[in-house]
Amino acid sequence: MFDPASLRYDANGLIPAIAQDHATGQVLMLAWMNAESVARTLETGRVTYWSRSRQSFWIKGETSGHTQRLVDIRLDCDRDCLLLLIEQTGPACHTNRRSCFYTALRDGAEVELMAPED
């Protein structure tokens, strides 16, 4: 059986987790997990992160309704980063956009790629 403690966490006990839409391949967001949030995610199928600002667990969509259901979890070769393939309901970004990566740098300027969803 997989043990979340076998991953390589940073000095704060955290590992970056990239959320990607399993159907489209679109990168939606990056957040942080600790061993307990990895275990909770695997146990429930609901993606649970660790909030560095609140110092508490954060189940994606718990208050907004914009949930993430785990489809697959992948480990990188160094075991120090996770790729979460998810089914996203609603926007992934707290700005109400589908992805947190909605700004690009083009010709030295920032360009907004997507507007907030209604």
Question: Can you summarize this structure?
Answer:
With 118 residues, the chain is mainly beta. It is built from one helix and eight strands, in the order E-E-H-E-E-E-E-E-E. The radius of gyration is 15 Å and the shape is globular.
What does this structure look like?
By secondary structure, the protein is mainly beta. It contains 1 helix and 8 strands. The strands form 3 sheets. The protein has a 4-stranded mixed β-sheet with strand order 2-1-6-5, with helices on one face. The longest helix has 10 residues, at 35-44. It is globular. It starts with 14 loop residues before the first strand and ends in a 6-residue tail after the last strand. The mean pLDDT is 97.
pLDDT < 50 stretches? none
* Structure summary, number of beta strands: 8
- C-alpha geometry: globular
H-E order: EEHEEEEEE
Task: Describe this protein with a few key phrases.
two-stranded antiparallel ribbon, four-stranded mixed beta sheet
Give me the secondary-structure topology.
Layout: E1 15-21, E2 27-33, H1 35-44, E3 48-51, E4 56-59, E5 68-75, E6 82-88, E7 103-106, E8 109-112
Parallel strand pairs: 1-6
Antiparallel strand pairs: 1-2, 3-4, 5-6, 7-8
